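> run fold Methyltransferase type 11 domain-containing protein
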Amino acid sequence: MADLFLKQAKEYAKARPSYPTELFQFIASKTPSHELAWDVGTGSGQAAKHLAAIYKNVIGTDTSEKQLEFAIKLPNVKYQHTPPIMSMEEVEQKVAAQGSVDLVTIAQSLHWFDLPSFYKQVNWVLKKPHGVIAAICYNVPRVSEEVDKVFDQYYVDVLSPYWDPARKLVEDNYRSIDFPFEPVDGADHTGPFEFVSEVTMDLENYLTFIRSSSAYQTAKDKGVELLGQDLVQKFKVAWGHNGPRVAKFPVFVKIGKVGDA
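> ok
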């Protein structure tokens, strides 16, 4: 998985949306204490920066050293490069001690994980019974009727053949992803709960976002340029002017607590 994002790490850091503050306020309201959060697959730190405003300490881990080079530096965030598979001893060395973590977050990356192995680690590090896990994903942005029409045709006809099968879990807004945790206090299910991230971007930022996807990079590695001049021209016409527009990303979170597992 890390290899898919290695070559476009700079574009990913630049173009990927941040998350709404309300999302992390909601998540944090479900953890009784705010001492330590572990952000797994932290990438360039989009989620870690929000956690740092609420939690005393944040550990952000990623299997891609290149992604971590572009991570947002904050005094209470420690970034750690980790191997794709970690033993419990490595989890303790690189992340935290058993039963010491208030919150585990995974933003736009849970669908890449070996879930049984990862969930064992989550159950091991989280405080019992109220430690919380929150898996976040976002789907394609909505800009305008004209831009969305060009994008949707591109997504279905051009981009889709290059997605990894795991992408289907994101397209389903994590509804079908395995998530064996108890509902948090005040909820009768584990989600997904929906939020919206609004990002102001110009056309170049928007095209950079498109180029930052793993499917685009997979095609490029095969010598295929998915965003040719003809398609770029279609986006220019649909965009309609040289100024910025507001892109609305639907954001979804699955959230649960570890209980006495």
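The domain at 1-140+164-197+247-260 is CATH 3.40.50.150 (Rossmann fold).
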